[in-house]
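It would be a great kindness if you could assist me with a short task in structural biology. Thank you for your consideration; the sequence and its tokens are set out here.
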Amino acid sequence: MMADHTTGGWRPRFICPGCSVPLDETATGLRCPSCPADYDCRAGVYRLLSLDRLAQLEPFLAQYRHVRLQDGYRTDDPDYYRRLPDVDDTHPQADIWRVRRDTYRRLRGRVLARSGDRLLTVLDLGAGSGWLSHRLAALGHRAVALDWLDDAVDGLGVWPRYPSRFVCVQADFDRAPFAPAQFDLVVFNGSLHYAPDVVATITGAARLVAPGGALLVMDSPMFRRAADGQAMLRRAARRFRSEYGLEEVVRRGAGYVTFGDLWRAAGELGLGSRFFRSSGGLGWSLRRLVGGLKMRHGPAAFGLWVAT
């Protein structure tokens, strides 16, 4: 059995992203006995994206890296990642991280606290640098961080900088390579708006939730009206061109979520759901309100949506 130095030996039950057959462990990673296909575990990250899929994603990932660098998210400072979602007030995205910190507080108070002393198995979809998986693993939970980006800054490759250990998987969350019903929590971590079909993605992720578990959406921009989401995307595209020098804006997914999408997905799954709104503080709220009035669209809501 291959040793997993990221978690002390535990790992989720993997299935082939191509044919859904359970994967066998090898000395260097995983193998599908049906396709057959080999998937390496390299630099502590299970690689379950094909080379063709990576090439398909690269224009978006290159843009994403460029924008994130300009916005101040990408850094070599290990303390920055260990402290997330806490950042200094001087950070260029301090307001956004205040929102994320508030949402994380709600996750702990509204969801984790209800499990009592029971340790949970959590799938962190769109994990980015893995800060949430790190926080959950530090609390004793078993966490799996999944993302497209494996960079050593702002991607899954950050994992060695954390004192806690969790499983890192490079894969698509719409074809998450895991056997059904094995996670107590499946969390879309600031990532659901990258899904092309939000309802289909949520209902697809439900297969991964263990009995009695929950589906969660954290900090995707949420709107009551699709028209407001479209207006936000047009404004963002103009900003990307003027501030970042992008001639063409590459978009992955819808770019936003509507509350109607969330309620419809919950209804199709027969689940009850609640939304807990987060805030970046009074100044943040006022700036967003004024900005929305100028642009003539409602501001996005951020927070924690829980379906059980």
In short: Helices lie at 51-70, 78-83, 94-110, 131-138, 198-205, 226-244, 259-269, 282-295. The longest strand covers residues 209-218.
